[in-house]
Amino acid sequence: MAFEDYQIKEGLYYTKDHLWVKIEGSDDATVGITDYGQHQLGDVVYVELPEINKEVEAGEKVASVESVKAAVDIFSPLTGQIISINEDLKDEPDLINTDPYGDGWVFEIKMSDPSEVEDLMTATDYKVYLQEIEEEEE
């Protein structure tokens, strides 16, 4: 698939690890795996979710996802406290595949430093990043 074929939502932030971040209110953020990221993984069969109330640093491993192709770690894009996890993923890990920007979200974090969002990519930046990945693979 070409990078243009992947769903990239405006108004979200993105990481080079193919996570999306939706800012809600002044300091809450929801985190999930992008459409590109879930496509690269293939069929997700298991999700290890983070602990609620755990304090995490940006870049720290907080969860992992297993698919038919690979097992990958999820690193928090932001520093803060895990305030919610998507319990539905325990029974339906494939929600990450079928609805990556909706029911397939992974966790919510209360940011301790909202300025870290400035280090993330916008939708436009992420499109450029995916285009660069595609060109490198050719």
From TrEMBL:
<dbReference type="InterPro" id="IPR011053">
    <property type="entry name" value="Single_hybrid_motif"/>
</dbReference>
<feature type="modified residue" description="N6-lipoyllysine">
    <location>
        <position position="69"/>
    </location>
</feature>
<dbReference type="InterPro" id="IPR002930">
    <property type="entry name" value="GCV_H"/>
</dbReference>
<dbReference type="InterPro" id="IPR033753">
    <property type="entry name" value="GCV_H/Fam206"/>
</dbReference>
<dbReference type="InterPro" id="IPR003016">
    <property type="entry name" value="2-oxoA_DH_lipoyl-BS"/>
</dbReference>
<comment type="function">
    <text>The glycine cleavage system catalyzes the degradation of glycine. The H protein shuttles the methylamine group of glycine from the P protein to the T protein.</text>
</comment>
<comment type="similarity">
    <text>Belongs to the GcvH family.</text>
</comment>
<dbReference type="GO" id="GO:0005829">
    <property type="term" value="C:cytosol"/>
</dbReference>
<dbReference type="GO" id="GO:0005960">
    <property type="term" value="C:glycine cleavage complex"/>
</dbReference>
<dbReference type="InterPro" id="IPR000089">
    <property type="entry name" value="Biotin_lipoyl"/>
</dbReference>
<feature type="domain" description="Lipoyl-binding">
    <location>
        <begin position="28"/>
        <end position="110"/>
    </location>
</feature>
<comment type="subunit">
    <text>The glycine cleavage system is composed of four proteins: P, T, L and H.</text>
</comment>
<dbReference type="Pfam" id="PF01597">
    <property type="entry name" value="GCV_H"/>
</dbReference>
<dbReference type="GO" id="GO:0019464">
    <property type="term" value="P:glycine decarboxylation via glycine cleavage system"/>
</dbReference>
<keyword id="KW-0450">Lipoyl</keyword>
<dbReference type="GO" id="GO:0009249">
    <property type="term" value="P:protein lipoylation"/>
</dbReference>
<protein>
    <recommendedName>
        <fullName>Glycine cleavage system H protein</fullName>
    </recommendedName>
</protein>
<dbReference type="InterPro" id="IPR017453">
    <property type="entry name" value="GCV_H_sub"/>
</dbReference>
